[in-house]
Amino acid sequence: MADPVHFTIDGHQLEAQPGTLLINAAKQAGIEIPAFCYYDGLTLQAACRMCLVEVEKTPKLQVACTLPVAQGMVVHTNSEIVRKARKGTLEFLLTNHPLDCPVCDKGGECELQDMVFRYGAGESRFVETKLHEDEQQWSPVVYYDRPRCILCYRCVRICNEGLGVNALGIGNRGANSEIVPNMGDHLDCDECGACIDICPVGALTSGTYRYKTRPWEMEHAGTICAHCSNGCKTTLGVRNGGIIRANNRDHSGINGEFLCIKGRYAFDFTCHPERITAPMVRANGELKPVSWAIALATVSKKFSELKARKGKVGIIGSNHTTNEENYLLQKFARQVLGTSNIDHHRTGDVATLLDALHGKTGALATMADLYNTKAALVLDSDLSQEQPLIAFQLRANFRHHKAHVYVVAPGPVREANYATTIEAAIGQEFEALESLREKLAGEPELAIVFGAAIKGDAIRKLVTFGDSLNIPVKYVGLVDYSNSRGASDMGVLPDLLPGYHGIAEMGLEPGLNYDQILTSTELDALWVVGSNPASRQPIAAQNAFVVVQDMFLTETARLADVFLPVASAYEKSGTVTNVTGEVQKLVRAAKAMGPKPDLEIFALLAKEMREDIGAGKPEAVFQEIRRLVRGYDVLFPIIETGGAVPTMPLNGRVPTEPAPELIRSARNTLFTSGTLGRFSTMLNSVLESPGTLYHQPPTPEPEPPVGTVTA
Amino acid sequence: MLTGKSMTFSPALEERFAKLLTSYPPGRTRSAVVPMLLYAQDEVGFVSRELIDEVAKRCSVTPLQVDEVIGYYSMLHRHPIGKYNLQICTNISCQAVGAEQLMEYACRTLDLKNRETTPDGLITLEEVECMGACAWAPAIQINYDFHHKVTPERFDQLMAALRDGSYEKKAS
Amino acid sequence: MLYNEPSPLEVKVVTRRFGMANSTSIETYLATDGYVAIRKAMEMTPEAIIDELKASSLRGRGGAGFPTGMKWSFVPRNSGKPSYIICNSDESEPGTCKDRLLMENDPHQLIEGMLIAGKTVSSNKGYIFIRGEYRYLIEIVDRALAEAYAHGFLGKNILGSGWDFDIYTHTGAGAYECGEESALLESLEGKRGIPRLKPPFPAVVGAFQAPTILNNTETFSAVPAVLRDGGPAYAALGTPKNGGTRMFCVSGHVNKPGVYELPMGFPLMRLINDVCGGIRNGKKLKAVIPGGSSSPCLKAEECDILLDFDSLAKAKSMAGSGGLLILDEDTDIVAVALRTIKFYAHESCGWCIPCREGTTWLKKILTRFHDGAGKPGDIPLIEELSNNMFGRTFCALGDAAAMPTTAFITKFRDEFEAYLKKSTPPVDTPELAVV
Ligand SMILES: Cc1cc2nc3c(=O)[nH]c(=O)nc-3n(C[C@H](O)[C@H](O)[C@H](O)COP(=O)(O)O)c2cc1C
Ligand code: SF4
Ligand code: FES
Fold first, then answer.
1. Is the peptide bond prior to B138 cis by the omega test (within 30 degrees of 0)?
2. DSSP element (H, E) containing B141
3. Do residues C172 and C131 make contact, with C-beta atoms less than 8 angstroms apart?
4. Which residues of C touch A46 (CB under 8 A)?
5. Of the bound ligands, which one is closest to the alpha carbon of residue C396?
6. Using a 6 Å CB cutoff, which residues line ligand 1?
7. What pLDDT digit, counting tens, does each position of C264-321 carry?
């Protein structure tokens, strides 16, 4: 750290690191310098001129967003001429900005409104005619209203710099300047909606939210996205018990300002017309709605009977139910039903990775690590499609820290426009790795992010390769769905107990695995919780008693004898563990009338069967998990207050037989989300081919865009 | 977008493009975007969607990056114009010696408003900014040819020449 | 070719070959001690060349009048990075029409000037950025470049020195702002002509992110004379700190408008009366716009002044680009003010708010005002909006729009008041104009 420079703002003696921008130095001292175009982490524009301040000994007003503080600098941010300048700028802005605030989505959350309120002139002297242009629809979810646009270029920068999508540009000149989409009159992009979130005014609005409500009529619940494994925080706006908006206005999540299309728009499955809200029991061949009492009684009666005669039960757990639910389900299986025939659709070989890393500390990278690591290696994953937040983190790391990123993948990847990229077929990765060995060994540290194609012994081989580099290496084993990692950690596995204790420790035999359960013809009962195996393979157990817990009548649910409708991730509380092993809290946003959380269902069933697996209260179960599950003795207050805490490393082996054949990536893209995605009307309304965006030519060399301070 | 069917141009223009693409430092073919658009427009008549994709491909940039510059430069246009692009400067030096009256005269005699084209597609009339002929004002350009100190009489002669095809290059 | 009769009072340095039989050909150029200066430069150290320029007190002819020698000295030499020589031939400042003549009549002089710059900072590439409307000049300059290559003044191992230098022409496509040096560089890189943040200045981070010498066409064209005859000799032609001659582009209400090369510091009134034959039709002088449309006008009584950067700056105007517009007593200043702001509104790149919205708003007010629908508040409003733009915009275009407007309305307030007297204010109900 260099010696700080000393300077004065509004009479306060301050100090900051050399090179600190005046606008940030002021912020650190709690002095607000208003700005539109300045945005932390994006290139500098100095375009809006809202941040003009008075610097002694300089004739003109200075632009605080690009001016580094200097020794002895004396600044006034609230002098008469500064106030006058701000008034002037705002008056200029309002000449073409329509004053349609009462019908504007942004009304109440609008930065221009706030600025005019704080710094603006009372009345406008503009009596000429305003420019008018009709609103444009660029995609099912993105609308652009030119007259409202103040041309701060934030949207262009977040799209080009932040996402690397380059779907937005600037068209025309002078007063006719406007933001333009990449397809002339529409967008072909990730539809992540970052441009909408970052827009300070109502120029860019969301197709799912526009004209739905006034912002202050909503309550907000900051919870975890229900879709992929990255675990972004998404803030749900709720009115009358219904979710009408998702965004991340408070950037408190591990995803900062990032959300992808699913996190931002795909919450509408909660109110999909095909959502089932009443339990159903099959009577002469047909599923008929019944009361919860009858449904639960039917199941517990059957389970008790099978338990008595040691019948054969198979259980398929979920990779998107909460940790508490996963934990309680396996407890129910082993303690109540006395079986280890329990498994889930494994989307990554977590157990083998943890075993390969046993004894190492700090060998698992967190989301934050991916933004800070000096170098990263990506294996067999099209990140921007399958792991969007990780893609965002690595790109941001490159932009802000010039991190070296290497990608070995079977097909084209968007990272190609900044990373060292080698195309190698699945199975050929290691040859490619050898060709990179020297470069990698030369890095001070490395984070290796690998896809599900690397499993079983390949993982051990990869870790050996990592060790051979003789530099600190961290790993991320990619998985899909919002809680795959949790399902594995909680022991929803035939041979492993919660925290990866061998089943033998309880003197038990490993049970049937996922494939064995689905192909076994002798099952007396099949219990499927939050999973849809029948969409991927036939279920052999023809005359088994089938219980299914889900939100919709999926392929699997259609085979059920008893169907129990459940609450979605946005309608319950609990915890989930993301791809980087970070535990986060779900906050109940909406109310589900009829359906129950899986957790409550397990508890009620146990009660019916006069068994004690503890109260079905998420908080209580989580405390039990913290006590009993290896790696989960995590800091409770942080999680409770909406933070993310990484699980602890294991300090022993993981006694498991490698079963690579059971590892199957869901291969979800930005526009699919397993069975859940099929029930998001909005997700299915967006037909995109973002792949085409990959073929964009790489920029010749990372070069600061217009307005970047290079000196 | 970058895989549209490719356009071809006259041998002379193709040669010019080939030279253009080697005129800039390595990896800087984007520099050729503006010249390529202008030269191509002179041959094709206007900047079509197809031309945008073509230039994008040749300069290895995205169509959006090409699109962005078109709206910025006033000499580039997205729609066909007349055979002769008649531009009348009315900026202050020309204004001082009657350019605005000349513009009105042009509108009246050609029965056109600013930026309109004669029904026969022969002449497009445009009022433009200073074109660097201030000392010899009022000045006009017909396509790229300068005509200085243009009086209404001279203007009539020129228009007649455009119509009867006797107009040939001369920067008077 | 020449478009006006030369004046006997001219001191021809950069225009000395104008009017000669095929003055553009390299033979003519060589026959009139062309490419002598570059041979000299080959024998000189960069420091020596820069000292010669400093001694000449040559100042930029593009508008800002920055000392050329000093500018060249800012370029880090042998930084390992490549460096570039850029000629600004975008000539778009209303009232200016000289760079055009230099390329049309003596392209080799410009090429030699750029060669000397290239040699000074050991650059290997130069570009001549020519405004799109000057298409015919591209053909002329390309022909001259071809000749220079053929004679070994360009290309590999120039004059056996082992030094390589290439020059290319690059066309603009209609944008005044691309004359601003950093916007020009963006345009050269195939982007919208949006100016860059400064610092860093082009000398350090310019074309393609590399150190760059960027000068006006006339500035480069003067360099061969400076090296050939020596800095002091060149300086002696002008006034202190304003060395040499410059091309004055005289337009408007004089008997003999034209482009004339005269010593720096030539008296304005002599230019009007002795060089240009006085105001036409025996009218009286009302005002002079002395350095292109961006420069604040001078009232007749202020015109007893010397035409050099410092004298005009002292009079709160500028020598700018050397374009002088002479206006007689019948001129409608409001019309001139309107046409001026129309230009800047049309040419504003749109990047920053005060310039984009300020020029547009002023244009709207002045249009209404000129149409006879002015309102009492308009005059102070025009004045205040100009002040709100001045010094607050991203680049100097905002100032260039504000300065003349302020000057018109303060110096000729009476004319604006007169307009008000005959106006009929409109009802304040703006309906929407569709763009
Ligand atoms: C809006 C604007 C337009 C300009 N246009 C021109 C121009 O057309 N030609 C020119 O040589 N300089 C122009 N300049 C000045 C250039 O930015 C730059 O100062 C000049 O080319 C440097 O060359 P010089 O030092 O030889 O004058 C312009 C500046 C501004 C702010
Ligand atoms: S990246 Fe994953 S977690 Fe984040 S918003 Fe998108 S789907 Fe949700
Ligand atoms: S924030 Fe400084 S100019 Fe916009």
1. yes
2. strand B140-142
3. yes
4. 197, 352, 394
5. 1
6. C 60-64, 66, 71, 88, 90-93, 176-177, 179-181, 214-216, 219, 395-397, 400
7. 999 999 999 999 999 999 999 999 999 999 999 999 999 999 999 999 999 999 999 9
**Torsion of Cα atoms, A509 then A512 then A514 then A519, to 10°:** 170
pLDDT tens over chain B, length 172 residues: 444 458 999 999 999 999 999 999 999 999 999 999 999 999 999 999 999 999 999 999 999 999 999 999 999 999 999 999 999 999 999 999 999 999 999 999 999 999 999 999 999 999 999 999 999 999 999 999 999 999 999 999 999 999 999 997 544 4
Report the alpha-carbon distance of residue C184 to residue C192 in Å, rounded: 9
Atom of ligand 2 nearest to the CA of A578: 3
Do the chains contact at B130 and C188, CB–CB below 8 Å?
no
- The amino acid present at B51, given as its one-letter code, is L
CB neighbour burial string for A150-182, b if at least 16 within 10 angstroms, e if fewer? bbbbbbbbbbbbbbbbbbbbbbbbbbebbbbbb
Query: Given ligand 1 and candidates C88, C91, C182, C399, which is best to mutate, with the most ligand atoms within 8 Å of its CB?
Result: C88
Residues of chain C in contact with residue A67, where contact means CB-CB under 8 angstroms, are: none
CB contact under 8 A, C392 and A96: no
Closest ligand relative to C88 C-alpha: 1
Give chains near B: 3+ CB pairs under 8 A: A, C
The answer to whether C212 and C170 are in contact (CB under 8 A) is: no
Query: Rounded to whole angstroms, how far apart are CA atoms A548 and A546?
Result: 7
Angle at C158 between CA C152 and CA C161, to 5 degrees: 145
ipTM: 0.93
Find out whether the peptide bond into A700 is cis, omega within 30 degrees of 0: no
Inter-residue contact A474 to A446 (CB < 8 Å): yes
A682-710 burial by CB neighbour count: b if 16+ within 10 A, else e?
Answer: bbeebebebeebbebbeeeeeeebbbebe
Alpha-carbon gap, residue C273 to C283, rounded angstroms = 12
Cis peptide before C200 (omega within 30 of 0): yes
A246, A264 Cβ separation under 8 angstroms: yes
Q: Which residues of A touch B64 (CB under 8 A)?
A: 166-169, 180-182
Phi-psi region of C19 (alpha: psi -120 to 50; beta: other; left: phi over 0): left
DSSP 8-state code for residue C283: P
Q: Do C204 and A711 touch (CB under 8 A)?
A: yes
Residue in A with minimal Cα distance to B27:
A700
Ligand closest in space to the Cα of A42: 3
**Chain C: residue nearest B64 by CA?**
C191
Q: What is the rounded distance in angstroms from the CA atom of residue C110 to the CA atom of residue A183?
A: 43
If you ran DSSP here, which 8-state letter would residue A2 be given?
Answer: P
Element (H, E) at A304: helix A292-308
The Å distance, Cα A387 to ligand 2 centre, comes to 8
Distances (CA, A) of A300 to A147, A305, A374, A556, A598: 63, 8, 55, 20, 15
Residue type, A31: I
- Cα–Cα distance, A636 to A625 (Å, whole number): 11
Q: Which residues pair with A220 in a beta bridge?
A: A237
Q: Which two tokens stand for residue C318?
A: 């500028």
CB under 8 Å to C421, separation ≥6 — which residues?
none
pTM of the model: 0.93
